[in-house]
Specification:
heterotrimer; A alpha+beta; B alpha/beta; C alpha/beta; A: alpha+beta; two-stranded antiparallel sheet; 2 helices; about 10% helix; B: alpha/beta; Rossmann fold; about 40% helix; globular
């Protein structure tokens, strides 16, 4: 139901899984990770988070832009062509 | 309290009595005195509001978008070029359903530059989604200001209102006016309590963009709110009359119309002159009457048909011209009647453009033409006082 | 920490703008209201009935965000609420169409933090030149051609315009320097009065560079001296980010499609030298190198 005016609930774009846009997916080699968190800071989708101390991209939203991989100082993230 | 005051002061005083949180306006003749008076009322501590001086009319109304979305009651006034500069914001305010009230001191538009009264400015903004109420005299402009907030802010309407008053003729005239009592207004007009505001405790997104799958429904809701406003305007005018003892009509008002063969339809301050002309014509045996439109948007089609159904002929006198067609009110009335069984001739006149006086003689001329149209329409639209010698 | 810009927004893959917004919101926190003009930001984050914004947000028009924010700020003061009021908008609204409204807000002294994410052209409508487009960049309205080497005019100096209004906090920032950006946003929000932060925000679609290099491009803008990071408090230059190893502008220009004509066309070499001159002037003016 739409209301008068254009009012929208906060944070509701999460229903759209932009991961469908992706061609390349980030693969994290956790043993190389130095926990600098630059991938998390720079990710435009805000979809890289720490889970039990490991940085993990949420592939539901990751558009595969490759910024995390390019910025990673220890080359721990590589972009891999996704088979769909 | 009855006092002889300037029209602009009376309206500024009425706006003050509605206790706006913020007033924002940009000076433009003939609206200037309204905002000067409001500034003084703020400076004197009589009006506990913020007065924001801004860089343009465009910003004046934009400031009020922020105020209204943050839950505040707001007021502005403008005219002519200023209203034209606001055009984009006008649609935005009505689309976001922000119940802002603004006085329009009606004035002609440039070019040629002209600071005098006509109604081309607000007529040009008839489709922007605002309610438009026109005033016959200063007292009506005062009373309509209070009614406007009550209409605009009621939750089933949530639509901005322009209170239109003829520039100079009403803004600069000194006449006896019953100034409002702030507490009485506060009793009549409840505080503004919108359900949705910009609030970090309950964050919401205002002004998202709508694609073809939803845009139509947003416009439909506005259309529906205007339909609801038809009865709201009537009811608020009645309520107001009960409390304040003054009644200028709801959607429209009539004068000597019951048995009239010829009915003039008009809006604004020319009503006074027309009433005087009617008195003269009636004394001579011509059955002329008047219907004054208060609410131009929403357009009171049903109420008009009810009031005009027994006339032999209708003459519309209006202070605007839709270059490329005819004049706005004439078109609207003809359109409203077309699918009904009413088939009297309807003719119209553009008059009073750029501040030209509309005299009793001019009105008699319109009545003569209307009377002749009963035997067949010679011209369904013309300029009432055209100086052919300078063309 | 709660993420105040939700994923699922429709910004291009590799766009820097969402990162800028998230960093700004991280610094501002939840007690914040954001006003945005029409922009990529608006269309990509608020496709009805969805919104990426977790804080209250309002969009009115292209050229009135500062006026709307003025109204919001006045209401916050009136209700004695200590809520941050931010404008976040692109360079088109900031430098060009919204200038009157910005000037009014600066001049009235509202406590509003104005954040411009500067991608140096009208990207939302398809990469047309704005007042922020740098000298000789190709855009769709300043295309390179036989008679044209791209945008014929230099970038408008918006921070100087803010300073001329007496805006008490004026800074430049970059998406590549998140710690610096966050610190500046915090300082802006502590300022009594208006503040202006102009953030370099590369646009992958308009500037055309390799996937993944968005942040590197922004870093190069700083390291070449073309985007000096500075801060003015009450009109005084208080902070400049020094560059450890200065790079030639060539390193920044050659990796972007918007400058590729300068490497092919007659007269291009001369233009490249004059762009180096712009950087050299910045380096001297802000003493970017110790």
């Amino acid at each position: 139901m739409i209301k008068a005016g254009e009012l929208v609930k906060p944070g509701s774009t999460q229903i759209t899984k932009t991961g469908a846009w992706r061609t390349f997916a980030p693969a994290v080699e956790h043993n190389k990770c130095i926990k600098c968190s630059l991938c998390e800071i720079y990710c435009p989708e805000s979809c890289i988070h720490q889970e039990s101390g490991l940085f993990v991209p949420d592939l539901a939203y990751c558009k595969g832009c490759g910024i995390c991989s390019h910025e990673c100082p220890s080359k721990a993230i590589i972009m891999v062509l996704e088979e769909k | 309290m009855m006092k002889v005051v300037e029209g602009s002061y009376a309206v500024a005083h009425a706006a003050m009595c509605c206790s706006p949180d913020v007033v924002s306006a940009y000076p433009i003749t003939p609206q200037t005195h309204i905002v000067e008076h409001l500034s003084q009322l703020v400076a004197d501590g009589e009006l506990r509001a913020e007065f924001l001086t801004v860089d343009s009319e465009f910003s004046a109304l934009s400031v009020l978008v922020g105020v209204s979305a943050a839950g505040g009651r707001s007021y502005s006034s403008t005219t002519s070029q200023g209203l034209a500069l606001m055009y984009e914001v006008l649609y935005n305010v009505s689309g976001m359903r922000l119940p802002i009230v603004m006085t329009v001191a009606n004035r002609a538009l440039s070019a040629p530059l002209n600071i005098w009264n006509d109604q081309q400015d607000s007529i040009g903004a008839r489709d922007v989604g605002w309610i438009q109420l026109y005033s016959e005299n200063v007292q009506e402009a005062v009373d309509t200001t209070v009614q406007a907030y009550k209409i605009a802010e009621s939750l089933e309407i949530m639509t901005p209102v322009m209170v239109c008053m003829d520039g100079f003729i009403l803004t600069h005239v000194y006449e006896p006016v019953e100034l409002l009592d702030k507490e009485q207004v506060a009793d009549f007009l409840p505080p503004y309590r919108p359900t949705d505001i910009l609030d970090p405790q309950n964050p919401k997104t205002f002004g998202a963009f709508a694609d073809p799958s939803t845009y139509t429904e947003f416009r439909y809701l506005q259309y529906e709110a205007h339909l609801k406003a038809l009865s709201k305007i009537e009811n608020v005018a009645k309520e107001y009359a009960e409390v304040f003892g003054r009644d200028f009509g709801g959607l429209l008002d009539a004068y000597q119309a019951d048995d009239a063969e010829i009915i003039i339809v008009t809006m604004g301050s020319v009503v006074g002159t027309i009433k005087e002309a009617i008195d003269g014509l009636r004394a001579e045996g011509t059955k002329v009457g008047l219907v004054k439109i208060r609410s131009y948007r929403p357009f009171p089609a049903q109420a008009l048909m009810k009031e005009l159904k027994n006339a032999d002929v209708i003459a519309v006198i209006e202070k605007d011209i839709c270059v490329g067609n005819e004049a706005a009110l004439l078109t609207d009335i003809k359109a409203a009647f077309y699918n009904s069984n009413l088939r009297m001739p309807i003719i119209g006149f553009a008059a009073g453009l750029g501040g030209r006086d509309i005299t009793i003689k001019d009105i008699r001329k319109a009545v003569e033409k209307a009377s002749a149209a009963r035997k067949g329409i010679e011209s369904q639209f013309e300029f009432l006082t055209l100086r052919k010698e300078i063309l | 920490m709660q993420n105040l810009l939700a994923p699922g927004h429709r910004a291009c893959a590799g766009c820097s703008m969402p990162t800028v917004i998230r960093l700004v919101l991280d610094a501002a926190g939840t007690n914040t209201i954001v006003v945005s003009p029409t922009s990529c930001l608006e269309v990509t984050t608020t496709p009805f009935p969805e919104s990426a914004w977790v804080v209250p947000w309002i969009h009115s028009l292209f050229e009135n965000a500062s006026a709307v924010a003025s109204g919001v700020e006045v209401m916050m003061k009136r209700q004695c609420k200590d809520t941050n009021v931010l404008v976040i908008g692109g360079d088109g609204s900031t430098f060009d169409i919204g200038m009157g409204s910005n000037s009014g807000m600066f001049e009235r002294g509202h406590k509003v933090a104005y954040i411009c994410y500067d991608n140096e052209a009208y990207m939302n409508t398809g990469v047309q030149r704005s007042g922020s487009t740098p000298f000789c960049a190709h855009t769709t309205t300043t295309p390179a051609g036989e008679l044209s080497l791209g945008n014929p005019r230099p970038k408008k100096d918006m921070p100087a315009i803010a300073l001329a209004h007496g805006v008490p906090y004026v800074a430049t920032a970059s998406v590549a320097y998140p710690v610096d950006l966050r610190k500046k946003v915090e300082r802006a929000l502590q300022t009594q009065g208006p503040s202006y932060i102009q953030v370099n925000a590369p646009c992958i679609t308009g500037w055309t560079f390799d996937a993944g290099t968005t942040i590197e491009i922004a870093r190069l803008a700083v390291e070449t001296g073309l985007w000096p990071l500075f801060e003015y408090v009450n009109g005084e230059l208080t902070e400049v980010k020094k560059i450890r190893r200065i790079k030639l502008v060539d390193e920044y220009l050659k990796v972007q499609g918007r400058y590729k004509h300068l490497y092919k066309m007659p007269g291009g070499a001369e233009i490249l030298r004059s762009i180096q001159d712009i950087a050299d002037k910045n380096i001297a003016m802000y003493k970017l190198v110790d």
